[in-house]
Amino acid sequence: MADTWQHIPILAQDIANLLLQNKSGYYLDGTLGLGGHTKLFLSRLDYNAKILGLDKDAKAIKFAENKVADHRLITRQASYLQASEILKELNWPLLDGALFDLGLSSYQLDDATRGFSFLKSGPLDMRFDNTKGTTAADLVNTLPADKLEYIFRTYGEEHQSKKIALIICQARRETPLKTTTDLANLIEKHIPRFGKTHPATRIFQALRIAVNEELETVSKAPKMLKDIIKPGGRAAFLTFHSLEDRIIKQAFKEMEKTGAWRLVNKKLINPSPEEIKNNSRARSAGLRVIERVL
Ligand SMILES: C[S@@+](CC[C@H](N)C(=O)[O-])C[C@H]1O[C@@H](n2cnc3c(N)ncnc32)[C@H](O)[C@@H]1O
After folding, report:
1. Mean of per-residue pLDDT scores for the chain
2. 240 lines ligand 1 (CB under 6 A)
3. What is the pLDDT of residue 7?
4. How far is the CA of 7 from the centre of ligand 1 (A)?
5. Is residue 56 part of a domain?
6. How far is CA 269 from CA 193, 199, 255, 285, in A?
7. Could you read off the pLDDT of 225-275 as tens digits, one per residue?
8. Considering 171, 190, 211, which residue would you say is the last residue of a domain?
9. What is the whole-number distance in angstroms between the Cα of residue 57 and the centre of ligand 1?
10. Can you tell me the distance from the alpha carbon of 120 to that of 167, in angstroms, rounded to the nearest whole number?
11. How many domains are there within the chain?
12. What CATH number corresponds to the domain at position 207?
């Protein structure tokens, strides 16, 4: 694995300021990635603090373990939705804080073998956990046109979803689409570029969200918080598109109505222009934090 892989943690200082209220507390990094946020958190926490780092991606966990190299980090390859059962296994108390930094990491995008990028030729895979489940190739080669259209329209907000779904269905009758470039070139052949954006951009985003069931998963996360966060503890969600943010915003509103939770920030926190200049991935990021009151 290339140890030059970089992933600059987004809004890292802000998240640390809002989340780390107890220096010797117990925390969850539900999307460990390359450990960027966790490394910063640990630099601010005491010797006896603990962080549970979860990721679906085994390679990310290995990388993060090496990079962070700290006895206070415990890792597991798992979905963040399994946090509650893992905390029970570990015999940990309820948490002081949890972070969910959604979506994919830049190292996954850069690794051609994972199939996330239309700029690099690789198998049309896109699974965060590439040991199980349906790949992007499975979806594009087997789903009926109306299902593909739904995925492209709903998860990619793609205006030409019907046309692209039909083009794919026609092409796969001749030869199945196997690689990222098979799909990207097919789309580029039929859909003109709009400005600098590659016409496959939204289609790749939509397939990644569908393959990993990202929206279904994130919808379940706020419901899980009562099982993992202690009264006075906080949870932070870093989202990367309006679909994700809408889910978190709505869920937080409902939680606030119960009186058991309080919004730490009423307005979405966005990275500064300077952070965006240094890290283009920060462009679409938004942070919401909630605190358990009761
Ligand atoms: C944006 S990256 C996290 C980057 C990390 N905060 C850092 O600073 O290095 C998102 C990570 O979440 C993982 N992931 C996505 N969905 C997940 C889920 N449901 N459960 C656990 N990990 C997930 C991805 O594999 C990816 O490594």
Report:
1. 96
2. no
3. 78
4. 11
5. yes
6. 32, 30, 19, 8
7. 999 999 999 999 999 999 999 999 999 999 999 999 999 999 999 999 999
8. 211
9. 8
10. 22
11. 2
12. 1.10.150.170
Q: Residue 278 corresponds to which tokens in the numbers above?
A: 């240094």
Query: Is 6's pLDDT higher than 80?
Result: no
Q: What pLDDT, on the 0 to 100 scale, is given for residue 4?
A: 55
Q: Provide the pLDDT for residue 193.
A: 83
Helix, strand, coil share of the chain (percent; to 5): 50, 15, 35
252 lies in the same domain as 288: yes
Atom of ligand 1 nearest to the CA of 217: 19
pLDDT of 2 strictly over 80: no
Beta-strand relationship, 95-101 and 50-55: unpaired
d(CA 195, ligand 1 centre) in Å? 30
- The tokens for 202 are 């939204």
Residue 70 resides in a domain: yes
- 50 in ligand 1 pocket by Cβ < 6 Å? no
The pair of three-digit structure tokens given for residue 165, joined into one six-digit string: 């779904």
Average pLDDT over residues 38-62: 98
114 assigned to some structural domain:
no
Put simply, whether the predicted model's pTM sits higher than 0.85 gets the answer yes
**Mutate which of 128, 215, 220 to test ligand 1's pocket (most atoms within 8 Å of Cβ)?**
128
Q: How far apart are CA 162 and CA 176, in angstroms?
A: 19
